[in-house]
Amino acid sequence: MSTRQKVMMILVGLFLSYCIAMIIIITVNFREFGIKGAQKRAMLTAEIVRSGLTAHMVNGMMDKRSYYLKQIENNDNINALWVVRSQAVVKQFDNAVPIHIEFYDLSS
After folding, report:
1. Among 73, 99, 100, residue whose Cα is nearest residue 89
2. Which residues, 6 or more positions from 84, have their beta carbon under 8 angstroms from its beta carbon?
3. Banded pLDDT at 103 (limits 50, 70, 90)
4. pLDDT score at 7
5. Is the dihedral of CA 75, 80, 84, 90 positive or negative?
6. Where are the beta strands (DSSP E) in 1-108?
7. Is residue 64 within 8 Å of 53, Cβ to Cβ?
8. Which residues, including other chains, have CB under 8 Å from residue 103's CB and lie 6 or more apart?
9. What is the per-residue pLDDT across 4-61, written as a single tens digit (0 to 9) for each?
10. DSSP for 14-36?
11. Which of 64, 58, 73, 59 has the alpha carbon at shortest distance from 97?
12. Does residue 3 come out as left (phi exceeding 0), alpha (psi in the -120 to 50 range) or beta?
C-alpha cells in the first residue's frame, strides 16, 4: 500500500467519523428541542387555565368553572386536563368539582 492510499484511508476514516458524530449530535439536539417545546406548551396551557380560573374567581363566576375547564379539555391539542388543589384549598372550598384532584407531594 502506497503512502497516498494510506493518507486517503485516514482521511476517509476521519470524514466518516465526523459524519457519524454530527448525526448523533443533531439527533440528540432534535430530541431536546422536542422535549423543551412540549414543556413550553404545557406551561402555557397551565398558565392560561390558572389565569382563567383566577378571572372566574375575581368576577364571582366560579359556578361556571366546570364549563370553562371542559371547553379547554375538549381542545384537540390537549390530551388531559386536571386542576391540582392543596389541602388548604380543599378544606376552605370543598372538593366540589370532580376534575380537581388533591395536591400530592411530587418530591418523593
Report:
1. 100
2. 100, 101, 102, 103, 104
3. very low
4. 92
5. positive
6. 83-85, 100-102
7. no
8. 84, 85, 86, 87
9. 999 999 999 999 999 999 999 999 899 899 999 989 988 888 888 888 888 887 887 7
10. HHHHHHHHHHHHHHHHHHHHHHH
11. 64
12. alpha
